[in-house]
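#struct-help
A.M.: can someone run this one for me? Single chain, 474 residues.
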Amino acid sequence: MLKLIIKKECLATLKDVRLQVSAVILLLLMFTAVMVGKEGQKRIQSERNAAQTAMYDQWLNQQNKHPHSAAHFGQFAFKPKPVLSFLDVGLDNYTGVSVFLEAHKQNEVLFSGAQDSNGMTRFGELTAALVFQVLLPLLIIFLAFNTFTREREEGTLKLIHAQGLSPRTLFMGKVLGIYLMVLLLFVPVIMLAYLLLDQRSSGFDTEVTTKFLSIMGLYALYFLLFVILAVFVSAFSKNSGFSLLTLLGLWISTCIILPKATTSLADKLYPAPSQFEFRQVIREKVKNGIDGHNPSDARLASLKQQVLKEYGVSSIEELPVNWGGIAMQAGEEYTDQVYDREFSKIEGIFHRQNLISEWMGFINPYLAIRNLSMALAGTDFHHHVMFAKAAENYRRAFVKKMNKDMELNHKPGVAYADYNVGQEMWAEVEPFQYQLPNTASVLAAQWRGVVALLFWLFVLFGVSTGYSKRIPKL
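D.P.: on it. Structure tokens below:
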């Protein structure tokens, strides 16, 4: 009997011309989003690879110069474009593309896509994630809003019950029938997207397939939630109009109103300082000390006495090493200490803001799937921070190498302009490499989203099956 109900729902859906047209349009949108997204991802990654190679070649081929001058000459680090970003661009358009790495300064990641776009950027772009998260649930509503109300209005629901079919079996049959039609639309898109993965071009992400399957599995679960909800509302609605209005109201609240409200709430509860304020704090604490009572002059004098004592000499001129290299590296390390301390505060603010969004997934499943999709695609804030930290660690390493060479090889008494190094030194600095985190670590960081989706499945399934016996016949 269950199979007959599933078959009936599938045939009824396939015969509805309006739904056929809507499904074809949505399918074309999904195919377009995947194809255009993949083409854009390949082009952008190719450009960034070329730029990264060109910048490193420029570093290798710079003229002979003092190592500290080379540290100021610097390098660029370009953020890789994750392979799965063709499904979900996430925050990539707002978090910047590259960062200039140089001595004494820790620069921000700049040149975001939004900077070069018009005002329409804030409305988003057509991506697979947008279709999956917002438009496909809307189609599910139009597929399922009258599954029960149509039977009730035509007078067939009472006849079905009279034949001894249990309400629970009828409910589950309708849910599975609608869900099969949704998967009929979803599976071809999955197959196309998988064929476009091109894992060979992703040396910085070794688990593309695992992340891809995880994303698709989570979306399949997300669609099931909307199917159960739509069928449940239809089962207890007096007529199809009321059912449709109720479901559209829930869709608007879930996909449009609550996400904006959640973001505003997070900003209000945990406001972040401006970039100008952050830089002001850094400059102040580098100059006057982290505690405000250890100015740079006093730190330098203390370091000088410590170094003289270590080498058993009474003046800088008697040192067997270069005092300038020691002082510059000490300044770098103190600035790094100040930056790490202040950045950890900012990171904590954004982490608390994101936590609100993650916990709100238990109220709004859209937020749960949105966070999970961005995380697995490698386009969320956490991935941006990891790239920025990797670039900063690279900067610190090559600047330290330059300062160390100056300390050991720039002999006292030799003028700054008279000590130069060349390509042999530049080649000791390896090219910048960045590796995306694996699937397990991403899901571990986003466990609230996974639990939220499972929570919604448990609640909706439990409530719907528990109340299915009370479905009115008329």
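A.M.: thanks! The first strand starts at residue 75 and ends at 78.
D.P.: also worth noting: The two ends are 22 Å apart (CA to CA).
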